[in-house]
Specification:
disordered N terminus, DNA polymerase, domain 1, DNA-binding, alpha+beta
Length: about 500
DNA sequence: CGGCAAATACTG
DNA sequence: CAGTAT
DNA sequence: GCCG
């Protein structure tokens, strides 16, 4: 019977024994808990949205200048109340712009080239300015460079010692390459987030395909190795450096350039030099080809299996592939892990943007049906970052009337299940609605005073139920839906929160 | 040289 | 509580 | 592995 189980995993359910498949389905019992008997009725828009008269944008002048503006939150709520775009002037807390580097010949002007309406941000810019000044000299002590050992020799730790008196370690001198310690003048201008010491990755723009993607891919391999071996510190170190590299808009030309990026130091710079010279990084290749890591990566790719469990499967249980998991461990898997195994291959398939859009549209449609047209939805994640193919679908739903988002996640999942779009619910979180109900019952005042920032969400398995029966066997009495199963995250956000606010501002300004 | 992302929720 | 996920 |  073991070989029969093999068949399940290769995805040939249809020609396999029906009995087997059913037993699997039974064992899984993954159908989401929400019963479809109570179909949520659509709230036929009792409350139509007041359409505001088309009017001149009172803030045109403000938005046409290059200054960054910070407004009081009340501007938004008041605008909402009046259903029109209020002038921002009375709400303006601060406006300013990023100044250029002090030494920059392009800006002979004074340093105080920003207009502070309040004193708050001053210190930040002062700090940035100070940093920039201190940074003008080369971070590398060129004179005292130590010649370090050959890079590709397999010794990874020895060459990377930090020179005692400089913070930055010297880079390996590679005479055969232009990817060397360059002159201090040939570095490209650092993007603002480097110069200004921007602290959070979310403040940098992200690119779908950064200029240094190939190098980043190598670092990702090392990071994965750190992950699988339980080296959490290493994971974090590589994560931060990769994040900085991914936001870096220039093609790297010298290793020294990397030292200027936050989270990047000698190790990463040396890896870059190796990459630039040989087109690959030995440590990354080794990690990728490592047999143990290959097995553990296989398990790690099961949804619901993390590094710890992947290692356990391999080293404690002694399993070596998915068949072993099914044969010897099926009953010990959690419910979501069984789902993860069942759709192992499909979850790894990339999702084309067009399909992401289709899925989002379907979800939006159901949300509108369940509430009203005030529903706003926004696809985030890989799609929003412009990726051609996405690993999953992340969609945020919101509504200006917060009461309309109450329990909506439950309703949406039920509705989509009933129409067979959602095949499984991996996880559903209703904490926010739970708490919201309590406070709402007490405070009849609607919007204010809640401190929770968690979001209702559902992580589900999605499959397009509309399929064309296989052409090979059109008379099949029970044709099979071969549309791939997708991972979809539906997130409910209070309208007030950032993402919702962002696109509400966009639409307001367009009106 | 020591410390190390943040917050939150579900599952078993 | 440990593990996993967002 | 980086940072203070």
């Amino acid at each position: 019977g073991h070989k029969a189980k093999r068949g399940k995993l290769s995805g040939e359910y249809e020609d396999g024994k029906k009995e087997t498949e059913e037993s699997i389905l039974h064992e899984i019992s993954t159908d989401s808990e929400t019963e479809d008997e109570h179909k949520p009725k659509s709230n036929s828009a009792k409350r139509k949205r007041v359409s505001s008269p088309v009017e001149q944008d009172p803030n045109e002048a403000y938005f046409s200048n290059p200054y960054i503006k910070v407004l009081k939150w009340e501007w938004f709520t008041d605008s909402q109340k009046e259903s029109r775009v209020l002038p921002i002037e009375p709400y303006l807390l601060y406006q300013g712009r990023i100044i250029d580097r002090p030494g920059d010949p392009k800006t002979p002007g004074k340093g105080s080239s920003f207009t502070a309406r309040t004193k708050t941000p001053q210190s930040i810019l002062e700090r940035a300015r100070a940093d920039a000044e201190n940074d003008t000299s080369s971070p590398v002590q060129q004179r005292s460079n130590r010649k370090l050992g050959q890079i590709g020799g397999g010794r990874v730790s020895a060459p990377f010692q930090t020179t005692p008196h400089s913070k930055r370690a010297a880079l390996l001198h590679q005479t055969t390459s232009e990817h060397d310690l360059g002159q201090s003048s040939d570095l490209p201008e650092m993007p603002p987030w480097v110069q200004n010491d921007v602290k959070y990755a979310c403040q940098r723009s992200t690119h779908a395909d950064p200029p240094n993607a190939a190098f980043i891919a190598q670092l990702d391999k090392i990071k994965l190795a750190r992950l699988l071996t339980g080296d959490e510190i290493g994971v974090r170190a590589y994560s931060t450096s990769i994040a900085a590299l991914a936001a870096y808009p220039h093609k790297l030309s010298t290793g020294r350039e990397i030292l200027l990026l936050p989270g990047c130091d000698a190790k990463i710079a040396n890896l870059y030099v190796e990459f630039a010279n040989y087109g690959k990084i030995q440590e990354a290749e080794d990690a990728e080809n490592n047999e143990e890591l290959k097995v553990q990566k296989l398990f790690y790719n099961i949804w619901g299996v993390g590094a710890t469990t992947a290692r356990d499967f391999h080293k404690e249980k002694g399993w070596r592939d998915l068949d072993d998991v099914v044969e010897y461990g099926w009953q010990t898997l959690t419910r979501v892990q069984q789902i993860g195994v069942k759709y192992y291959d499909e979850f790894l398939l990339p999702i084309p943007r067009s399909e992401v859009e289709d899925i989002a549209a379907t979800i939006h449609k159901h949300a509108v049906k369940l509430r009203d047209a005030g529903i706003q939805s926004l696809v985030v994640g890989g799609y929003r970052r412009g990726k051609e193919h996405c690993g999953d679908v992340d969609i945020i739903l919101s509504h200006p009337d917060e009461s309309k988002t109450l329990n909506i996640i439950t309703d949406i999942v039920a509705s989509l299940e009933q129409e067979s779009w959602i095949t499984h619910t991996l996880l559903i979180s209703t904490k926010t609605s739970d708490r919201g109900q309590q406070t709402l019952a007490l405070n009849s005042s609607s919007t204010h005073g809640h401190g929770f920032d968690s979001l209702d969400k559902a992580l589900v398995v999605w499959q397009n139920p509309h399929y064309t029966p296989s052409t090979s066997n059109p008379s099949d009495p029970k044709p099979k839906n071969t549309n791939p199963h997708r991972r979809v995250d539906i997130i409910i956000s209070p309208f007030k929160s950032g993402v919702a606010l962002q696109f509400s501002l966009t639409s307001l300004r367009k009106s």
